Structure formats: C-alpha cells, structure tokens
Amino acid sequence: MSLLELEFQWKHIDIMKGETTTNSFRNKNPNAKAPLLEIPSGQYIAESNAILNYLADGTAYLPNDRFTRAKILEWQFFEQYSHEPYIAVARFINIYQGLPEARRAEYESKQPGGHKALAIMEKQLNKTQYLVGNQYTIADISLFAYTHVAHEGGFDLSHYPAIEQWIQRIQSHPKHVTMKLKDEHNE
Questions:
Q1: pLDDT (tens digit per residue) in 127-174
Q2: Under a CB-based contact definition with an 8 Å cutoff, are residues 117 and 180 in contact?
C-alpha cells in the first residue's frame, strides 16, 4: 500500500493472544488468519497473495501481459507451497516459541526444504534483478516477507549473495517502508 501511495490504517492483530479466533474476527475471515484487508466497500479479502493481487491490479507491480502475470503467480504459489512452509515455520518455532525441545526435530526438518527454496530463488536472482525479470512486482513482495528474516529461522543468507543483493534492492526502493510492529521480531 505504501508503494502505491494508498492511504490505510494499520490494525495490529496479535495471533499469539488468539485475536484472530474471536467471533468478531471470524465474521470477517472464517479461516481465522491474518492478514486481512478491509476495502472501502466494507468487504474483506484474506490471504496475503490475494490481497497483493487485488491491490496491484492495474499497476506496474502486476503487469497486464498474460505470461508475466502467470510468472508472478508461479512465484506466489512457490511462496505458499515451497518457501513459507519451511522458512516461516522454522522462524515461528525459533522466534515465537523459543525453539522448544518438543519442536526441535520439526525445526531441523524444515532446514533442507528452506535451503532448497532459497537455492531456487538464488538461481533466478543470478539471472535477473527481480524474480520476474528486471521489474519489481508483487512476486518480489510475496517472497521478500519471509526471506529477509530467514536468518531468524536458522537460514544463513550469506550463502545466497544474489538474494542478499535482491533484499538490498527492495529495501532501497524509494517507497519501501519497514514495518514497525508491536512485536520486535517482525519487519
């Protein structure tokens, strides 16, 4: 929303306190998960990639070319099925749960899948500045979210120099805003 210079009001929802499981929240999103976007019509859109596609429609972040849009979706599906289940889950176990012994084996089991995802990204980013060519798109926004904090899940990004350069490109974008949440572990 900052990249598009859209006015918005941020409301922090604490998942650790069960704030997504309240009746009020479930009435907006029966799946009881964040993020959730309320649009001016009073309707709601859940799921981060659905929100990104809705907001970016008609902008340079989601070009009209069918092939380019398909490649963006390809990376967004990759984020959901090949990246997030490893990197975000390992981060959650480590940062939010303090790497309890009862989940250590699960945490360790996430490492190979996370490194595989990072290696795929690294390969692409050795060819192009961004995930879908040389234009910053919502594919990059989707994958930036957990990639830039992957070290919190035990993934050493120094082994992925193209990813580190990509993170720097995104963070140096003139409209990039680092999110400041109540939780010090999120950006």
A1: 999 999 999 999 999 999 999 999 999 999 999 999 999 999 999 998
A2: no
pTM of the shown model: 0.91
Please tell me the distance from the alpha carbon of residue 39 to that of residue 13, in angstroms, as a whole number: 17
* Coil/strand/helix, residue 30: coil
Q: What residue ranges do the domains of the chain occupy?
A: 66-171
Which of 65, 27, 28, 26 has its CA nearest to residue 45?
28
CA distance 87 to 109: 11
Q: Residue 160's closest CA among 109, 131, 117?
A: 117
Pick the CATH number of 66-171 from 1.20.1050.10, 3.30.450.20, 3.30.530.20, 3.10.450.320: 1.20.1050.10
DSSP for 81-127, written as a single string: IIIHHHHHHHHIIIIIT---GGGHHHHHHHHHHHHHHHHHHHHHHTT
> Rounded distance, CA 163 to CA 167, Å?
6
